[in-house]
Structure formats: structure tokens, C-alpha cells
Amino acid sequence: MGALNLGPTGAALGTTLSQAISVIISLAVIVKRGEIKLSRSDLRPQREVMGQLLKIGVPVALQDGLIQVGFIVITIIANNRGLTDAAAVGIVEKVISFLFLVPSSMLSTVSALGAQNIGANKPERAEQTLRYGILIAFGFGVIVSVIIQFVAEPVVGLFNKDPAVITAGGQYLRGYILDCAMAGIHFCFSGYFCACGRSGLSFLHNVLSLTLARVPGAYLMSKFFPATLFPMGLATAVGSLVSVIVCVIAFAVMKHRSKIKTEA
């Protein structure tokens, strides 16, 4: 797309085409191996199946949309601080997006393995998957958080050579990176809740996180600390801490209800 000089339109088109090609190849492999029989009748919507998909999928879609809105609001807050801070926040968001691949992958892993074990009537193994997922994601987050405290400026410097942007970006990254550890925990809980068919809980903790801590915290820190971006970065980690607290409470309630149901 770059060779055709299509610019941003080409980037969007390339992403869409790559997804389409992926679907076509996947269908071809499924049909060729014959492990899963696929016919036209299988592609017809079924009310019961669609209802189950929407019950889980709609809260997840709303959650992801709300998270993106939250990021947009935080970007607007950063833009109001001036060009230097706006550039610094934009760079850090790219770095964080890369580092969050591990927590995001653990969310998918816990969701998939948890659903398989719950479907096999082995909820204890689903909980074990959750525990190991949290250990891996949180451990990764802690290690990365410690490393970033020493190399924040050089990392930001890979994207921009302006000393002011590097300094501001280093401040923001040092605060924001702590979210990698906290997010690793609530990402795994979100995967577990989805595996249990309770994606509404995942939506709930993200809504509370955004409305009670992440966005208002970023705004207040931006106003109270105009000379540094570090507190504004911390606001994001505090938002994830709120999510973790809500997730732990929800998980404890689910366990208690399950125990009562089993004893009955």
C-alpha cells in the first residue's frame, strides 16, 4: 500500500484485506482437513446460538468501545497541555500497546482454556488457569515496570529526538508502566468471567475504573501537576487497581454462591 502512495487509506485498506485473507485461508484449511464439516446451513443464523453469542459479545464490545473512548479523553487532556506533552503521551501509548500484548494474550488464554474446562465440568481447573494466568501476567508486569524505571528516556528517544519530549515521555512512561502489572491481573479475571458467561462483570469493572479513577484521575493530575506527566501516568495504574478490587470481590461472590449451590 505504501508503494501505491495510498497513505492512511492504504493502511486501513491493508488491515481490512489482511483480515479477509486470513478468514479465507482459515475456511480453506477447515474444509480441506475435513475435521470440521462446514456447509451452507452452518452459516445460517440460529436464534439460540446468536442469543448466546450476543449475551457474551455485547458487553465485551461495549467494554472495548468504552475503553477506547477513555483513551481518547485522556489524549484530549494531554493535548490541552501543549504540543510537547501531547507528543510524549502519543509515544508512550505506542510503547504501552506493545507491552500490553502479554496481558492481552493471557486474557485470551484464560478465556479459552477456562471455557473448555467449565464446559468439561471441571471448574477447579478453570480457576487454576486463572491463577497461573495472573502469576504470569503480573510477574511480567512487575519485571517490565522495574526495567522501565531505568530506561524510560532511551525508550521514548527511539521515537523522538526532542529532549523536551523525551523528558516528558519518560515521566509519563514511568507512571503508566505500573498499569502493566495491575492490568495483567484484571485482564485475566476478564477472561475468566467471559469463560463463565459473565462478561457483564468484565464490562462493570472497566466502567467503574474509567469513570471513578482513570479519566477523572488523569484530569485532576493534569491540573494539579502541570510540570510533570508522572502523576497523570499513575492515574491509569490507579484505574486498573480499582478494576482489580472489583474483580476480586466479584470472584469471591461467585465462589460463595457456587459453594452454597453445591452444598444445597
Features:
84% helix, 2 domains, single chain, mainly alpha, 264 residues
Describe this structure in words.
It is a single chain. This protein is mostly helical. It has helices spanning 7-33, 47-79, 83-99, 101-119, 123-157, 163-176, 178-195, 199-224, 230-263. Helix 2 (47-79) packs antiparallel against helix 3 (83-99) and helix 7 (178-195) packs antiparallel against helix 8.
How does the helix and strand content classify structurally?
A: mainly alpha
Task: Give the overall silhouette.
Answer: globular
Q: How many DSSP E strands?
A: 0
Number of helices: 9
Largest sheet: none
Overall tally of domains: 2
The overall average pLDDT, rounded, is 87
Radius of gyration: 21 Å
Distance separating the two termini: 62 Å
Q: List segments where confidence is low: pLDDT < 50 over at least 5 consecutive residues.
A: none
Beta-strand portion reads under 5%
Helical residues, percent: over 70%
Strand and helix order:
HHHHHHHHH
